[in-house]
Amino acid sequence: MKQSAVTIKDLAKELGISPSTVSRALKDHPDISPETKRLVNALAEKLDYEPNTIAMSLRSKRTNTIGVIIPEIVHFFFSTVISGIEEVAYKKGYTVMFCQSNEDYEKEVIDTKALLAHRVDGLLISYSKETTNFDHFREIQRKNIPLVFFDRVPTDELHCSTITINDFESAESAVDHLVIENHLRIAHLAGPQNLNISKQRLAGYKRGIEKHKLYFEEGYVQYCGKGDFEEGYRCTNELLKLSERPNAIFANNDVAAYGAMKAIKDAGLKIPEDIAIMGFSNWQFASLTEPQLTSIAQPGIEMGKAAARRLILELEAKDEDLPPVDQVLKTDIIVRGSTRSTQK
Fold first, then answer.
1. What angle do CA 333, 339, 344 make, to 5 degrees?
2. What residue ranges are annotated as transmembrane (predicted)?
3. How many whole angstroms separate alpha carbon 11 and alpha carbon 25?
4. Which position among 130, 162, 268, 298 has the lowest Cβ density within 10 Å, counted as fewest Cβ atoms?
5. Strands 147-150 and 161-165
6. pLDDT of amino acid 1
7. What is the CATH number of the domain that holds 312?
């Protein structure tokens, strides 16, 4: 038969003191003598006493739990973000509950409701590629639950703090790098255009093309839907059909860049001699490809830390009404063999 959990009343009965004294002793209250605290904590350890967190949260209206929704846990970038979130949250005494939407809007809505049902104090969210309706996030705000977006952030009337990278400037600097390496016909594998990060990277790419007065045609921008390996492969094959074939491709993410590399090799072309390839995110596989992939490194751990710090700041502001902030983190270009020119 299952044994009942030990309660504060059980400890009090065993020691012959009041439940309130036991409760204050467990909380290290200054009014309780050191000897009583010692006896209470020793018995609690002996009987394997654990606080009733549900009852405590009902009394305090806090669970000290943060909810996190990300598109994919297996995604290298998001896995580093998780590490940053956990590091900050646990040091501050918060438990973290993670959900992954799997890039599915309906799953994201379900995850949001599940986290709210578990009474999380606040949420950190990077929304799915399918998400165009933000009503489920507005519901969080209506409940006065702090909400911070990171990486993928909405551009509508949701007024909450955001943690992003400089996507526009990063994409422009990608074009700068390719020009320095003497690649002057640059194409772009664009990501889903409902995501602001994809729009910003496309805009930054176009700004770089205009700035350097490079050759450009509409076919040089290929929209890669899901932005995965298969789409990168398909879109690159479309680029290879052009009469004025590009000699460099800047991909919206590394996975699409891997697809581009395979398409180029399958066509019997060489990287970077015939076509240079540049990615975005600096996945762990970027240094394992042949040639190694030049990529823009996103500060995932720093983004996770910044998002967690901001949310906890808002959670602990009490009655103070903190205005939302938009924090932008910098990126770095990791130069490898896929873009190094042999003609300089």
1. 110
2. none
3. 11
4. 268
5. parallel
6. 37
7. 3.40.50.2300
Query: What residue numbers bound the domain in which 127 lies?
Result: 64-165+300-331
Is the domain of 90 the same as that of 173?
no
Residue 5: both structure tokens together: 């959990």
Indicate whether 37 and 85 sit together in one domain. no
Higher per-residue pLDDT: 152 or 320: 152
Pair (134, 243) in one structural domain: no
Burial (CB count <10 Å: 0-12, 13-18, 19+), residue 147: buried
Question: Which of 124, 130, 131, 140 is closest to 65 using CA atoms?
Answer: 124
Task: Give the pLDDT band of residue 229 (cuts 50, 70, 90).
Answer: very high
Q: Give whole-number Cα distances, 317 to 140, 314, 320, 323, in Å.
A: 18, 5, 5, 11
Is a pLDDT exceeding 60 seen at residue 96? yes
pLDDT tens digit string along 52-76? 655 545 454 668 999 999 998 877 8
DSSP category for residue 276: E
Reported as a pLDDT band with limits 50, 70 and 90, residue 11 is: confident
Same domain, 312 and 292: no
Same domain, 108 and 145: yes
Structural tokens at position 55? 């009852």
Type and span of the H or E element at 115: helix 105-117
Q: Is residue 40 predicted with pLDDT exceeding 60?
A: yes
DSSP 8-class letter at 106: H
Take residue 74 and report the two structure tokens written for it.
């297996």
